[in-house]
Protein backbone atom coordinates (compact mmCIF):
# COMPACT_ATOMS: atom_id res chain seq x y z
CA UNK A 1 0.00 0.00 0.00
CA UNK A 2 1.42 3.43 -0.92
CA UNK A 3 1.89 6.15 1.64
CA UNK A 4 0.15 9.45 0.93
CA UNK A 5 1.41 12.89 1.87
CA UNK A 6 -2.13 13.78 2.96
CA UNK A 7 -5.01 11.45 3.87
CA UNK A 8 -6.94 10.42 0.73
CA UNK A 9 -10.31 12.17 0.42
CA UNK A 10 -13.50 10.32 1.21
CA UNK A 11 -15.14 8.52 -1.70
CA UNK A 12 -18.09 10.50 -3.06
CA UNK A 13 -21.21 8.36 -3.23
CA UNK A 14 -24.98 8.30 -3.67
CA UNK A 15 -27.51 6.27 -1.69
CA UNK A 16 -29.13 3.20 -3.24
CA UNK A 17 -32.89 2.97 -2.70
CA UNK A 18 -34.01 0.26 -0.29
CA UNK A 19 -30.46 -0.65 0.67
CA UNK A 20 -27.64 0.33 2.97
CA UNK A 21 -25.29 0.13 -0.02
CA UNK A 22 -23.81 3.22 -1.67
CA UNK A 23 -22.99 3.90 -5.33
CA UNK A 24 -19.43 5.23 -5.53
CA UNK A 25 -19.25 8.24 -7.85
CA UNK A 26 -16.31 8.59 -10.24
CA UNK A 27 -17.28 11.56 -12.44
CA UNK A 28 -20.36 13.66 -13.18
CA UNK A 29 -21.27 14.67 -16.72
CA UNK A 30 -24.21 17.00 -17.40
CA UNK A 31 -26.10 17.54 -20.65
CA UNK A 32 -26.99 21.11 -21.57
CA UNK A 33 -30.27 22.14 -23.25
CA UNK A 34 -31.83 18.70 -23.68
CA UNK A 35 -35.47 19.81 -23.45
CA UNK A 36 -36.71 22.03 -26.30
CA UNK A 37 -38.77 24.35 -24.10
CA UNK A 38 -35.85 24.93 -21.73
CA UNK A 39 -33.52 25.66 -24.65
CA UNK A 40 -36.00 28.23 -25.91
CA UNK A 41 -36.46 29.88 -22.51
CA UNK A 42 -32.70 30.54 -22.41
CA UNK A 43 -32.75 31.88 -25.97
CA UNK A 44 -31.04 28.91 -27.63
CA UNK A 45 -31.78 26.70 -30.64
CA UNK A 46 -33.26 23.37 -29.55
CA UNK A 47 -31.93 21.73 -32.72
CA UNK A 48 -28.31 22.03 -31.61
CA UNK A 49 -26.48 18.74 -30.91
CA UNK A 50 -26.01 17.90 -27.23
CA UNK A 51 -23.04 19.25 -25.31
CA UNK A 52 -21.64 18.35 -21.92
CA UNK A 53 -20.18 20.07 -18.89
CA UNK A 54 -18.93 18.50 -15.68
CA UNK A 55 -19.19 18.70 -11.93
CA UNK A 56 -16.69 17.20 -9.48
CA UNK A 57 -17.70 13.88 -7.95
CA UNK A 58 -17.97 15.45 -4.51
CA UNK A 59 -20.62 17.90 -5.74
CA UNK A 60 -23.16 15.17 -4.93
CA UNK A 61 -25.11 15.51 -1.72
CA UNK A 62 -27.82 13.20 -0.39
CA UNK A 63 -31.50 13.98 -0.47
CA UNK A 64 -32.62 15.56 2.78
CA UNK A 65 -29.51 17.70 3.19
CA UNK A 66 -29.35 21.40 3.93
CA UNK A 67 -27.06 23.14 1.45
CA UNK A 68 -25.55 26.51 2.38
CA UNK A 69 -26.41 29.25 -0.10
CA UNK A 70 -23.25 29.33 -2.24
CA UNK A 71 -20.85 32.28 -2.41
CA UNK A 72 -20.29 34.61 -5.39
CA UNK A 73 -23.93 34.60 -6.52
CA UNK A 74 -27.20 36.42 -6.00
CA UNK A 75 -29.05 34.38 -8.65
CA UNK A 76 -29.04 30.69 -7.68
CA UNK A 77 -31.25 28.52 -9.92
CA UNK A 78 -32.79 25.05 -9.63
CA UNK A 79 -32.71 22.52 -12.51
CA UNK A 80 -34.38 19.12 -11.96
CA UNK A 81 -32.88 16.21 -13.92
CA UNK A 82 -33.06 12.47 -14.50
CA UNK A 83 -29.69 11.00 -13.51
CA UNK A 84 -28.16 8.01 -15.31
CA UNK A 85 -25.73 5.84 -13.31
CA UNK A 86 -23.17 3.98 -15.43
CA UNK A 87 -22.35 0.43 -14.37
CA UNK A 88 -20.28 -0.91 -17.29
CA UNK A 89 -17.30 0.67 -19.01
CA UNK A 90 -17.47 1.59 -22.66
CA UNK A 91 -15.87 3.75 -25.36
CA UNK A 92 -17.64 4.77 -28.57
CA UNK A 93 -20.71 2.81 -27.55
CA UNK A 94 -23.29 2.34 -30.33
CA UNK A 95 -26.73 3.70 -29.35
CA UNK A 96 -28.20 0.21 -29.71
CA UNK A 97 -25.83 -1.07 -26.99
CA UNK A 98 -25.86 1.97 -24.71
CA UNK A 99 -28.56 0.93 -22.24
CA UNK A 100 -26.59 -2.21 -21.37
CA UNK A 101 -24.02 0.13 -19.77
CA UNK A 102 -26.58 1.75 -17.44
CA UNK A 103 -26.73 0.44 -13.85
CA UNK A 104 -29.67 2.54 -12.79
CA UNK A 105 -31.35 5.91 -12.42
CA UNK A 106 -31.97 8.67 -9.91
CA UNK A 107 -33.28 12.21 -9.57
CA UNK A 108 -30.87 15.11 -9.26
CA UNK A 109 -30.82 18.90 -9.09
CA UNK A 110 -28.24 20.83 -11.08
CA UNK A 111 -27.83 23.93 -8.92
CA UNK A 112 -26.53 26.81 -11.04
CA UNK A 113 -25.06 30.21 -10.22
CA UNK A 114 -26.92 31.78 -13.15
CA UNK A 115 -25.31 35.20 -12.87
CA UNK A 116 -21.85 33.64 -13.13
CA UNK A 117 -22.99 31.49 -16.04
CA UNK A 118 -24.35 34.54 -17.89
CA UNK A 119 -21.06 36.37 -17.33
CA UNK A 120 -19.09 33.38 -18.63
CA UNK A 121 -21.26 33.10 -21.73
CA UNK A 122 -20.77 36.78 -22.59
CA UNK A 123 -17.00 36.46 -22.16
CA UNK A 124 -16.85 33.11 -24.03
CA UNK A 125 -15.34 31.52 -20.92
CA UNK A 126 -15.92 28.09 -19.33
CA UNK A 127 -18.96 27.50 -17.11
CA UNK A 128 -17.06 25.80 -14.28
CA UNK A 129 -17.59 28.46 -11.62
CA UNK A 130 -21.34 28.53 -12.35
CA UNK A 131 -21.88 24.76 -12.27
CA UNK A 132 -19.08 22.96 -10.43
CA UNK A 133 -19.24 24.44 -6.94
CA UNK A 134 -19.56 22.69 -3.56
CA UNK A 135 -22.75 20.64 -3.09
CA UNK A 136 -24.08 21.71 -6.50
CA UNK A 137 -25.40 18.24 -7.41
CA UNK A 138 -28.02 16.98 -4.93
CA UNK A 139 -29.09 13.47 -5.89
CA UNK A 140 -31.81 11.22 -4.52
CA UNK A 141 -31.31 7.48 -3.99
CA UNK A 142 -30.49 5.50 -7.12
CA UNK A 143 -32.63 2.59 -8.23
CA UNK A 144 -31.33 -0.19 -10.47
CA UNK A 145 -32.51 -0.49 -14.06
CA UNK A 146 -33.27 -4.13 -13.27
CA UNK A 147 -36.14 -2.79 -11.14
CA UNK A 148 -37.29 0.20 -13.19
CA UNK A 149 -36.45 -0.67 -16.75
CA UNK A 150 -35.17 2.15 -18.94
CA UNK A 151 -37.63 5.07 -18.81
CA UNK A 152 -38.78 6.65 -22.07
CA UNK A 153 -41.56 8.76 -20.57
CA UNK A 154 -42.81 9.88 -17.18
CA UNK A 155 -43.41 13.11 -15.31
CA UNK A 156 -40.37 15.07 -14.14
CA UNK A 157 -41.11 17.94 -11.78
CA UNK A 158 -39.71 20.32 -9.18
CA UNK A 159 -41.37 22.49 -6.54
CA UNK A 160 -40.05 25.30 -4.36
CA UNK A 161 -41.80 25.56 -0.98
CA UNK A 162 -44.58 23.37 -2.38
CA UNK A 163 -45.22 25.49 -5.50
CA UNK A 164 -44.51 23.56 -8.71
CA UNK A 165 -42.00 25.40 -10.91
CA UNK A 166 -40.87 22.74 -13.39
CA UNK A 167 -43.28 20.17 -14.82
CA UNK A 168 -42.33 18.13 -17.87
CA UNK A 169 -42.08 14.60 -19.22
CA UNK A 170 -39.08 12.44 -20.11
CA UNK A 171 -40.71 11.93 -23.50
CA UNK A 172 -39.72 15.56 -24.21
CA UNK A 173 -35.98 14.79 -24.10
CA UNK A 174 -34.42 15.95 -27.37
CA UNK A 175 -31.72 13.28 -27.05
CA UNK A 176 -32.97 10.14 -25.23
CA UNK A 177 -30.91 8.18 -22.74
CA UNK A 178 -29.28 5.77 -25.21
CA UNK A 179 -28.15 8.64 -27.44
CA UNK A 180 -26.79 10.62 -24.48
CA UNK A 181 -24.72 7.68 -23.25
CA UNK A 182 -23.46 6.94 -26.75
CA UNK A 183 -22.52 10.55 -27.55
CA UNK A 184 -20.80 11.06 -24.20
CA UNK A 185 -18.76 7.90 -24.81
CA UNK A 186 -17.42 9.37 -28.06
CA UNK A 187 -15.42 11.87 -26.01
CA UNK A 188 -14.46 9.82 -22.95
CA UNK A 189 -14.41 6.17 -21.98
CA UNK A 190 -17.32 5.86 -19.58
CA UNK A 191 -16.56 3.94 -16.42
CA UNK A 192 -18.59 2.35 -13.62
CA UNK A 193 -19.46 5.09 -11.15
CA UNK A 194 -19.96 7.83 -13.72
CA UNK A 195 -23.20 9.81 -13.43
CA UNK A 196 -24.89 11.64 -16.30
CA UNK A 197 -27.38 14.41 -15.51
CA UNK A 198 -29.58 14.34 -18.61
CA UNK A 199 -30.92 17.91 -18.83
CA UNK A 200 -33.76 19.93 -17.34
CA UNK A 201 -37.26 20.86 -18.52
CA UNK A 202 -38.54 24.44 -18.75
CA UNK A 203 -39.30 26.47 -15.64
CA UNK A 204 -35.86 26.92 -14.07
CA UNK A 205 -35.80 29.74 -11.58
CA UNK A 206 -34.40 31.39 -8.49
CA UNK A 207 -34.09 29.86 -5.03
CA UNK A 208 -33.26 31.75 -1.85
CA UNK A 209 -31.90 30.86 1.57
CA UNK A 210 -34.63 29.09 3.49
CA UNK A 211 -36.29 27.58 0.41
CA UNK A 212 -37.21 23.89 0.34
CA UNK A 213 -36.72 22.16 -3.01
CA UNK A 214 -38.60 18.94 -3.77
CA UNK A 215 -38.75 17.05 -7.04
CA UNK A 216 -39.15 13.69 -8.65
CA UNK A 217 -39.43 11.50 -11.71
CA UNK A 218 -42.34 9.08 -11.97
CA UNK A 219 -41.21 5.50 -11.48
CA UNK A 220 -37.68 6.50 -10.47
CA UNK A 221 -37.69 8.43 -7.20
CA UNK A 222 -37.48 11.81 -5.57
CA UNK A 223 -35.06 14.36 -4.16
CA UNK A 224 -35.44 17.00 -1.45
CA UNK A 225 -32.99 19.63 -0.20
CA UNK A 226 -33.16 22.88 1.74
CA UNK A 227 -31.13 25.95 0.87
CA UNK A 228 -29.55 27.21 4.08
CA UNK A 229 -27.91 30.47 5.04
CA UNK A 230 -24.55 31.38 3.44
CA UNK A 231 -21.43 30.11 5.19
CA UNK A 232 -19.65 32.68 7.28
TrEMBL record:
Ranges for domain Fumarylacetoacetase-like C-terminal: 28-227
GO molecular function: hydrolase activity
Listed SUPFAM superfamilies: FAH (SSF56529)
InterPro entries given in the database record: Fumarylacetoacetase-like_C, Fumarylacetoacetase_C_sf
Tagged with keyword Nucleotide-binding: no
This protein's name: Fumarylacetoacetate hydrolase family protein
Entry keyword set: Hydrolase, Metal-binding
Amino acid sequence: MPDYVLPPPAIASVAVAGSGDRFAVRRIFCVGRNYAAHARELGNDERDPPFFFTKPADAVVDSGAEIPYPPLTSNLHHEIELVVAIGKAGFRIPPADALAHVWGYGVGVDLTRRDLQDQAKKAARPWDWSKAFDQSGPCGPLVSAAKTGHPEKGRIWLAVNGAVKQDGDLAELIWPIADIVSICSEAVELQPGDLIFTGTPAGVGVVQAGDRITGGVDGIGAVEVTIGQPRR
